[in-house]
Write a structure and sequence with these properties.
Layout lengths: L1 E5 L8 E5 L9 E10 L2 H8 L17 E9 L11 E5 L9 E5 L3 E3 L6 H21 L6 E4 L5 H12 L3 E6 L2 H9 L4 E4 L5 H8 L7 E4 L3 H9 L6 E4 L12 H7 L2 E3 L11 H13 L7 E6 L3 H9 L6 E5 L1
Parallel strand pairs: 8-9, 8-11, 9-10, 11-12, 12-13, 14-15
Antiparallel strand pairs: 1-2, 3-4, 3-6, 3-15, 4-5, 5-7
C-alpha cells in the first residue's frame, strides 16, 4: 500500500511517498481503509525533531495519529459487526498517512450518518479539545472572549462555542484572509496580532476592561500580551504554543491581577472525555449549530506540501489529506 514516510527529522522535504506491505489486524485490532487523514501543528514539530512533549518516533515513520474511513478487516476478539462501518480511528502517534491503518478497537469512534468523513475528522480531535477548553473556562452569557489563532482548527470552533454560549468574541489572527473567516463567523471584532499595539484594540473593544476569557493557543509574546489585558476576575486558558514557547505566568502575578490561569497541563486530563465531547460536537454540527472549517485538503502524495502549509501559518481551519 501507499504511505508517506518521514525518512529523517527536518523540514517538510523529509516526507516522501513509499510502498509498504498491507497491514494485518492483530488481536483486538482493526484495519481501516483510510479516506481522510488528519494532521496537527504539533505533528510538524515532531517531524522537525523540535517537539518537547512527545517521544521521538523511530525512523523511518509514517506520520498521522487520526484517520477516518471504513473498517475493512477485524482481528481476533473483535466484534465482526465493525466491518464496513464508518469510523474515526486513533492510531497513536504514527501510522495515519497511509491507504490503510491499524487501530485498537477501543480507539474507534462511529461516525454519525449525518456527517461526512472529512467533517468528522475535523471535529473529533479539535472539536473535543475546543469543548473541553470551553467547559474549563466556564464561558457565560455576556462575557468578552478573546481567541488567539481564532481561524485555526481549534480556534474557529472555540469562536463558535463562545458565541453559542452568548459571549461576545474578539477573534485574533494573522492576515486578511484569516480575519475574513472570523468575520464570516460573526465575531464582534477582529485583531491582527502581527500588527503593533493590537492589544490596545482589544481593550478598546471591551470598554477598557479587557476580555473575561482568553484562549491562548499561541504563547510567546502574543500569549504574554494577551495575559496583560485580561480582565480582573477573568480566566486565562492555555492550550497551545504555536510560537514555540508556552506562556508562563507567575502564580503571584496572576493573584495580583485577579486572573485564574488554566495551564496547558489541562490537556493531559482531556483523554477520558474525548469521545463524549466529540459526540456532543458532532451532534451540534448535525443540528447546524457549529460547522467545522476545512480550509484546505491535499492528496496523500502531497503530504509534504500540507505540512509546509500548516507550519507556515498559511492555512485556515483544518487541513486534511484525502486518500
Amino acid at each position: 500500500m501507499r504511505v508517506v514516510q518521514a525518512i529523517g527529522f527536518g523540514g517538510p522535504e523529509v516526507l516522501v511517498p513509499a510502498e509498504v506491505p498491507d497491514p494485518v489486524a492483530g488481536p483486538g485490532q482493526v484495519v481501516v481503509d483510510v479516506a481522510v487523514a488528519g494532521m496537527t501543528f504539533v505533528e510538524t514539530q515532531i517531524r522537525r525533531g523540535t517537539d518537547r512533549w512527545h517521544e521521538r518516533p523511530q525512523l523511518p515513520y509514517v506520520p498521522g495519529g487520526l484517520v477516518a474511513g471504513l473498517v475493512s478487516a477485524v482481528g481476533a476478539q473483535v466484534d465482526p459487526a465493525w466491518l464496513g462501518r464508518r469510523v474515526i480511528a486513533r492510531t497513536g502517534e504514527t501510522g495515519g498517512f497511509a491507504e490503510q491503518a491499524v487501530a485498537m478497537v477501543g480507539n474507534l469512534f462511529p461516525v454519525p450518518d449525518s456527517l461526512g468523513l472529512p467533517e468528522a475528522a475535523a471535529l473529533y480531535t479539535d472539536g473535543s479539545t475546543a469543548m473541553g477548553l470551553a467547559e474549563g473556562a466556564k464561558i457565560g452569557p455576556g462575557d468578552w472572549v478573546l481567541v488567539e489563532a481564532a481561524a485555526g482548527g481549534v480556534g474557529n470552533l472555540l469562536v463558535q462555542l463562545a458565541r453559542a454560549a452568548g459571549a461576545h468574541v474578539v477573534g485574533a489572527a494573522r492576515g486578511s484572509r484569516k480575519l475574513d473567516v472570523l468575520r464570516d463567523l460573526g465575531v464582534e471584532a477582529v485583531v491582527d496580532y502581527s500588527e503593533p499595539g493590537w492589544t490596545k484594540r482589544v481593550l478598546e473593544v471591551t470598554g477598557s476592561a479587557g476580555p473575561d476569557v482568553v484562549f491562548d493557543g499561541v504563547g510567546g509574546q502574543i500569549g504574554r500580551a494577551a495575559f496583560e489585558v485580561t480582565a480582573r476576575g477573568g480566566r486565562f486558558s492555555i492550550h497551545g504554543a504555536s510560537s514555540g514557547e508556552v506562556t508562563r505566568i507567575d502564580p503571584a502575578e496572576a493573584r495580583r491581577k485577579g486572573v485564574e490561569v488554566i495551564g496547558i497541563e489541562q490537556l493531559s486530563s482531556f483523554r477520558p472525555n474525548v469521545a463524549r465531547w466529540a459526540e456532543r460536537m458532532m451532534s451540534q454540527a448535525a443540528a447546524g449549530r457549529v460547522r467545522p472549517i476545512i480550509g484546505q485538503t491535499f492528496p496523500l502524495d502531497s503530504a509534504a506540501d500540507a505540512h509546509a502549509a500548516v507550519e507556515n501559518r498559511t492555512t485556515v481551519g483544518k487541513t486534511l489529506l484525502l486518500i
